[in-house]
Each structure stands twice: as structure tokens, then as C-alpha cells.
Amino acid sequence: MTLQMDLPPAPEAPVLPSPLEHLRDPRTRAALRVQQALVSGARAFLRSDGAVEMAHPVIGPVTDPGSRGAKQVDVDYYGHRYKLMTSAILYKQASLLAFDRIFLIAPNVRLEPVETSSTQRHLAEFRQIDVEYAGVTRDVAMDVAEELVRRAVTTAVEECGADLAVLGRDPDTLRRHVARPFARVPHGEVVDGLRRDGYPQAAGTEIEWEAEERISRQADAPFFIVGYPKGSRGFYDKESPATPGTLLNFDLIAPEGCGELCSGSEREYDYAALVTRMRETGENPSKYAWYLDVARHGIPSSAGFGIGLERLTRWVTGLDSAWRTTAFPKIAGVVSP
Amino acid sequence: MTPLTAPGLPEDAVRARAREGAAAVFPPLDSYGTAVFGASPAPDGDEIDALRLVPPVFMPGRLARLIDLGREPLYSDVLLDTDLGGFTVPLPVYLSALGSTRVAGTSLALSRQAGRLGIPMVIGENVAPMNGFRAGGDDHRKGLLERIQAYCEELPDGVGGVCVQQSTEDADSEVWNHVYSDPAVTGLLTSGRLGFELKVGQGAKPGLGGLTMISEAVASDLAGQYAVERLGPGSSSILRCASPGTFTDEIFRRQIQLMRNNYPRARCWVKLFPGRDVGHAAAVAWDAGAHAVAVDGAEGGTGWAPTGFLGHVGLPLAEALRRVDPAGRTLLASGRVWDGMRAVKLLALGARAVGLGRAALIAADEDPEHGLERLLDAMALELRMAISALGRYTARETGPEDLWEPRS
Predict the structure, then answer these.
(1) Which of B177, B224, B250 sits opposite A68 (nearest CB)?
(2) What's the domain count of chain A?
(3) What is the rounded distance in angstroms from the CA atom of residue A13 to the CA atom of residue A214?
(4) Which residue of chain A comes nearest to B166, CA vs CA?
(5) Mean residue pLDDT across chain A
(6) Does A304 or A207 have the greater pLDDT score?
(7) Under 8 Å CB-to-CB from B158, ≥6 apart: which residues?
(8) Contact B349/B318 with Cβ under 8 angstroms?
(9) A205:B255 CB<8 A
(10) Which one of A71, A205, A281 has the shortest CB-CB distance to B254?
(11) Among A45, A118, A300, B3, which is disulfide-ready with A11 (CB 3.0 to 4.6 Å)?
(12) Chain B interface, mutation test: which of A284, A287, A331, A334, most B Cβ atoms within 10 Å?
């Protein structure tokens, strides 16, 4: 999750092609086959690591509030107001009551502000490779995310040579990007670097989109930004006991200007801390009755993350926009099938 | 015949100004030449009413303005325009949050007049959940976007702004998220004239959340979202209670930071009730990035509150303002504001601008087309006269030295 910045008025939203045009485009077909390989590689890795694939609900009484500025979609569920899932986070934590390691390939709907239509990476409907492991730290979660990306990319390179050729993507570049360990850079260092570079990035907030694109373009491999400030993320990202005000979370940034691929964290699981953090994020705890009830009786400590599947595919395929990696794209403010 | 009344406010005087505008700043014209006037010995009212503005004899500020103008300055040379909470305004005045009750039925007329005047308008936290987000259910209950659209249709370029409140329960209906991405506010957003106000409380009922009386049918609709309580027999006695929300220093700070983080193009205002730690709360808000802190004194108006709270709970506005040190940041004050004299006293106590609530409703009730404009014409004249009398020529120059407090 990154901050929407002050964009100029009325950004130009892309004109989406019709399904007739888009689905017959050889580049679309190639991208969808690469995406299949990425999912296949991720799935194989996670299963080999002992994680159980689950399916999370599409609707529920409450969903992830973390994506503010984006509207949630209400569903009339027999007279009760339910939400379409903006992310599976609450269900991921609860699912650890059944298994210690879980993952899901999950659809999400977020009615993002219309200015996101021109960022090339925001979709109103998208999929995430969602992972949650019980009893692990943020560092372990980052290890898992790194290896998952490495295996997914390697699978795509091995299985989709012809498709990458159609897309004009050099497989050796991809191999090189995932060959070495991903760097882990504290949020404060990223802010300092941007400021040295002349970019007016605020200290206590998210990295702005333009700034993120800038550091992504300068990177020669994927890297993690760790320790975002409190006040920038959802209540479920655990606050660091050692450095209060800093969250035990991370984003994974892709190189080549693609920006954020993944957000994750060590999770808050203590009932009282969750209620307090909900208030700090302006939430009404009574909305989260089922989740808090589970938390009151004890959910395991955990860490996890969600990788944006279309964003990962965009980076691997070298396409210029995330919407090109979905068969039926949805972009904020653009009416499409 | 109008049913709207405003106990606690000099309602007749407000109505006279809504009809007659600046002429009502003076005694009745037919008394000119046939009466002589002087101060009443002991003004009734609150502590702010008892304060007197005390111009100095020697006025270096007037000399500076004289040099600037090359002639003796007049009260008409006072500049009232200022910036407050991220907005530019022609007068140090804003329209306080007017809620969802039927007395706010003049809301569209008020919105249009506030827009025409270019003064900021705050929309109450209960408007969207009670009256609807886009359109209202009847002539009296207008939805949130209808009010915004009415305001924007009249708004000149470069001035004014709209602040939308949200409180704890309303986070459930995500008012801010809906507003922020609605095409209806694009013009406000791109011109920096959209704000969000975090309502911590209000002066008339410190420590309580919003209270409205609702019908049986509405009660069943809202049962899952709000607490409702039957106060007596009959369907007209159902009280809807919003929770006031739990705040600590840390919760407050983080909520403001989240507002700045998630709505970076919107101004961030907070509204505080006159609690004993109001100075600390205001400092936390500014430090966390709030563009404006509004303090509503115990004299502040409301659509509905227990009478015991009106008489016994919360700091009077004067004391609340004394406990806040704005240090150059935007402090807003509201509570029984209806004229220019009270407004100047509040500016001298540190406020950047004053909020009109009940007086605006009464003015629009008296004349839906122009009542508020006339009330503010009168207020502007009084502001200019009083500020110039103090030897000041902008609204921001007044200070506590301009006030005299009767010895108790």
C-alpha cells in the first residue's frame, strides 16, 4: 500500500480496449500464460514449504480497512451490510487457528480514487498471493516472500520462453534480478535518500507514488523497505516494541520503475493492542466483532504478506501497465466489462 | 410563522440583522435625533460578553497604516480576509457543522449563501448517515452531496472550502472515503478546498456523542449502527445516541496522521469540546499535522442535548481559549457567535476565525435567500469598526491586550 500523492487535476485515464481486441492480442495471451507460470511457481514453493492453500470469503461483515481513500463495496446480505473483500488479512489471521501456514490466491475489490487510473499499477479488481505463517517474525516473512518471488520468476523464465519473446522481455535480465539476496532498507534511509536526491518526501508517511517509482527505477534488483511509520498502515501491522512509532512491516519494491509488488508485516494479535490500534486508525471496533471475538480468545502470533499478482506479472512481462496482465481489467473510474 | 427558536441567543437581534443587514448594527433609525445612548450598566451573558474591547490612546499600528495609505485610515481600510485551516476566506468566519435535524432544514439555502460569501462550511457528522450521502429523503433533510453542490454552485474562485465531519460511528459508513473519491468534489479537491473534520466532541455536550430524536421506523433502520433508547411512551421519544469515541493522546495523534496520510489533498480539521485538557489536545492535533483546531465552548449550540449538560458541563469558551496556545497555528472558536463584537473578542483571545451555528440557522430561517449574507454584512461592519478602533487593520493583529476583564 502506498500513498496517493498530489496529482495534477483530472489525470488522463487510459482508454481500455474492448475484450475483442484485448483478448486476441498476442501480448495479452503471452502475459496470461506468464501469470499462470508465476502462480504455478508460487504455489509449488508454498506447498513445498508446508503451507495449505485455502479460499477466503468474497463477502463479510467487515474487510481490511487499510486501503483508505479507496471505497469499499457494500453488499446487502439479507438486510445486513456486508463488504466485498479489499484484502483477506482478517481471515488470514483467523485461518491460522486451523493451520500454521496458509496461503491463498485471492481476488480483491477496492474502488480506488480516480487519480489512481493513471499510475499504471492500480486496479479496482485484482488478485493477491496472500501468505500467512504462524509464529514467525517479519524477517522470516521477508525470507518467504523473497524465495516465493525467486521461484515464481524462475518458473516463468523456464516455462514461458516463447511468451517472453513475444513480449520482448529478456529472460537473462529477470534471472539476474532474482539471483542475489534482496536488500532490506529502513524506511528512514529511503526518505533520507529521496531528500538528498531533491525529492520532498515527508518523513512520517508512506513513500509517495512518484517517489516510489523513482527509487524503483534506480534499483538494480527487487528490495525491501522495512519499518514504515505508525499512522501509515492498518491496525494489524504490529508496532515495534524496540522502536515505538515504527511498524514491523515491509514493502517489496520491484526494479525498473514498477514500484511496490507486495506489502507485509508481523501482525498484532493481542486483543487489547488490537482494539487500541483500531482506534488509532479511526476505526470503530464494534464493526470487527467477529474478529475481536476470535482475538480475545487467542489467535497465534504471525507474519505474512500479499503479493499483487498483476503487479508481479507486469514487472516480469515488462508491460507498461498492470491492467494489461488481466483478461478483463478494471481501472478506477473507467467503465469496463 | 416560523417554528425555529434559539434559546440562549439574542434571537430578535439576529433576525433584525437578517432582515436589515448592516443598518441593524446601530440603534433603530427612527430614534436618531430623539434619543441619546450609553452602555448598559452590567451586560447579561457569559464571560465573553462581560469582556470589553479597550482601544489604546497611542496607536503605532494606525501610524503604520497612515504611512502606507498616505492618508488617515478609516475603518473601511481594515482587511478582513485571512487564511484559515488551509482555506482563504474574505471574512474570519466559517459556518460550523449543522447537523441532520429538521431545524437544519434550511441547509441548502445556507449552503448557497455560505458559498456566495466564500466562507468555509462544515457539514455535520450525522448528515450522511441520517439524511443520505447523495440525496436527502425530503425537503427538510438534505443529503451531504446536495449541500456540497449547492455551496459549490455559488462559490467564487479562490476562496472558501467545505469540511466534512466524521465521528467514530460514521467511520462505519466511511463518509470520508466516499467523499474523497466522488466526482462531485473534484473541483474542491483540485483547488485545495476540501477538508475533513475529525469531531472529538462539541461544546453543548462535552463527553457525549451525537444525540438525535428519531421515529420508530428510523430506529429500526439504525438499530445495528447506533444505540437507541426509548425515553418515554410514544414513537416520538426515541433517542439515537452515537458514541463519543475513545481518545488518548496517542489515539488522537495517530488518527490525525492517518487523515493526513490517506487524504493528502484534503485539509485536516479537528473539533474539540471544551474539556479541561483542551490546550494539550490542541497541541497534539497541531503537532500531528492538523491544519485547524476548532474549540467549541460550553455556550455552543446543538440540535439536541440534555438540559443538565447545557448548564453544567464543559469550560466556558473564554477559559477554553485561554488554555490553548495556537503559536501562529489556526485556532477556530465557536459558541454563541452572532455579532462582530463577540467575534473580535474571540480573535483577541487567539482565534483565527469564528464559527457561526445557531445564528446562521436563525438568519436563514428569517430569510432563506439573503438572511445569512445580511447577518454577515452587519458582522463585517462591526469587525471593521472594532478592529480599527483598536488601531489594527487586519483581523490577525488583535491580541489579549485589547481586552479588559471586569474585576470579580
Answers:
(1) B177
(2) 1
(3) 21
(4) A282
(5) 92
(6) A304
(7) B88, B191
(8) yes
(9) no
(10) A281
(11) A118
(12) A284
| Chain A, nearest residue to B191 by Cα | A9
Q: Is the pTM of this model over 0.80?
A: yes
On whether ipTM exceeds 0.95, the answer is no
Distance separating alpha carbons of residues B36 and A134, to the nearest angstrom: 85
Contact call for A205 and B260, based on CB within 8 A: yes
Q: What is the pLDDT of residues A77-135, one digit of tens each?
A: 998 889 999 999 999 999 999 999 999 999 999 988 777 777 788 899 999 999 999 99
In a domain, A303, yes or no: yes
Mean pLDDT of A245-269: 96
Specify the CATH number of the domain B48-209+244-404: 3.20.20.70
With respect to residue A183, please indicate whether it lies within any of the assigned structural domains. yes
Strands B194-199 and B267-272: parallel
Structural domain boundaries of chain B?
48-209+244-404
* Residue A250 counted as domain residue: yes
The whole-angstrom distance between B224's CA and the closest CA on chain A is: 9
Average pLDDT, chain B: 88
Q: Which of B183, B243, B261 sits opposite A231 (nearest CB)?
A: B261
Taking only the tens place, the pLDDT of each residue in B53-71 is 999 999 999 999 999 999 9
Q: What is the CATH number of the domain that holds A172?
A: 3.30.930.10
Chain B residue numbers with beta carbons less than 8 Å from the beta carbon of A70 are: 177, 181
Strand order in the sheet with A259-266: A52-53, A101-109, A125-134, A302-308, A259-266, A249-254, A223-226, A183-186
Q: Which residues of B touch A230 (CB under 8 A)?
A: 254, 257
Domain of A171, in residue numbers:
19-325
Q: What is the nearest CA distance from B265 to chain A, expressed in angstroms?
A: 6
Q: Is residue A331 part of a domain?
A: no
What one-letter code names the amino acid at B312?
H
